[in-house]
């Protein structure tokens, strides 16, 4: 079977990356992980990837004068692996319009909130402060607008009375490890596509994100 070549970008722990690696290693995902690239030399995820026999690379943002130069170097590094899909997995650098345009429709992110709620950082504390009863994670195509690209799929979790940002974040992270490989699998099998700024699942425009617990995704799980 043809496998989708992917590159994963991380900045830290890399637990989402690890979830993707594990499913790929079981041959369940239909992807060929060409490389894991970090902007931070000390990212824990680099060790995890190397231990799994995956090629790793570092493109350190501190070595570049500005975001344009950094993103240019990152793009050269990524393209040397010729991925069909670039996966942001806890990658913490905002990307320039030129970078995002180069990978339009081939760049996805997992964000720890139910977008469009709580774009940006510190999502779990902000969800608690807002008093919402549900929180979760979203997978979206990356566009120039930060956390604003088409949302493909979401997974919801309840917010509990005694939650802290840490306990809520842990609940969300656990479902991220299920949500992200699920969506990557859809892309690998050609079910999920991006065209003219819109996401299509099974050739139907995705007008609302798939809730991974709903019927549209049942036969995937
Ligand atoms: N880039 C673009 N153009 N569009 C998006 O939707 C992006 C993106 C880059 C990263 C991930 C995102 C998230 O899921 C993401 C989506 C970093 C920041 C941030 O403020 C915000 C959102 C996201 C990632 N980063 C700081 C910066 O100045 C640095 C913070 C740090 O290093 O700890 O780049 O939430
Ligand atoms: C995840 O919760 C991911 O959704 C989030 O950071 C965590 C990374 O964990 N991403 C962002 O906040 C992007 N700004 P991981 O490194 O263990 O996958």
Helix/strand order, N-terminal first: EHEHEHEHEHEEHEEEE
Number of helices: 6
**What's the number of structural domains?**
2
CATH architecture of the largest domain: 3-Layer(aba) Sandwich
Oligomer: single chain
What overall form do the CA principal axes indicate?
A: globular
Describe this structure in words.
The protein has 221 residues and is α/β, with parallel strands linked by helices. It contains six helices and eleven strands. The protein has helices at residues 15-25, 44-51, 67-79, 97-102, 123-130, 165-188; strands at residues 4-10, 31-38, 56-58, 85-88, 107-111, 134-141, 151-158, 192-195, 198-201, 204-205, 210-211. An eight-stranded mixed β-sheet has the order 3-2-1-4-5-6-7-11, with helices on one face. The two termini are 20 Å apart. The relative contact order is 0.14. The mean pLDDT is 95. The protein binds ligand NHR and glycinamide ribonucleotide. The site of ligand NHR has 16 residues, from β5.
Summarize, please.
The chain has helices at residues 15-25, 44-51, 67-79, 97-102, 123-130, 165-188; strands spanning 4-10, 31-38, 56-58, 85-88, 107-111, 134-141, 151-158, 192-195, 198-201, 204-205, 210-211.
Summary tags:
single chain, 221 residues, alpha/beta, Rossmann fold, 2 domains, eight-stranded mixed sheet, three-stranded antiparallel sheet, 32% helix, binds ligand NHR, binds glycinamide ribonucleotide
Structural topology:
Elements: E1 4-10, H1 15-25, E2 31-38, H2 44-51, E3 56-58, H3 67-79, E4 85-88, H4 97-102, E5 107-111, H5 123-130, E6 134-141, E7 151-158, H6 165-188, E8 192-195, E9 198-201, E10 204-205, E11 210-211
Parallel strand pairs: 1-2, 1-4, 2-3, 4-5, 7-11
Antiparallel strand pairs: 5-6, 6-7, 8-9, 9-10
Helix pairs in contact: 1-6
The structure holds ligand NHR and glycinamide ribonucleotide (GAR).
């Amino acid at each position: 079977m043809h496998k989708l070549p992917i590159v994963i970008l991380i900045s830290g722990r890399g637990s989402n990356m690890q979830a993707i690696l594990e499913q790929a290693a079981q041959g369940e995902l239909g992807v060929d992980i060409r490389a894991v690239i970090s902007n931070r030399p000390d990212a824990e995820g680099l060790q995890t990837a190397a231990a799994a026999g995956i090629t790793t690379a570092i493109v350190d943002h501190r070595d570049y004068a500005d975001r344009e130069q950094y993103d240019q170097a990152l793009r050269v590094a990524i393209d040397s692996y010729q991925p069909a899909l670039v996966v942001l997995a806890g990658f913490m650098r905002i990307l320039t319009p030129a970078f995002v345009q180069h990978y339009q429709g081939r760049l996805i992110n997992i964000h720890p909130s139910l977008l469009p709620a709580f774009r940006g950082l510190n999502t779990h504390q902000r969800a608690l402060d807002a008093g919402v009863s549900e929180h979760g994670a979203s997978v979206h195509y990356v566009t120039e607008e930060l956390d604003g690209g088409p949302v493909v799929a979401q997974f919801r979790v309840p917010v509990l009375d005694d939650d802290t940002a840490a306990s809520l974040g842990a609940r969300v992270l656990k479902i991220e490890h299920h949500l992200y490989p699920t969506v990557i699998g859809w892309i690998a099998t050609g079910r999920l596509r991006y065209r003219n700024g819109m996401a299509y699942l099974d050739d139907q425009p995705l007008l609302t994100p798939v809730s991974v617990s709903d019927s549209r995704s049942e036969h995937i799980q």
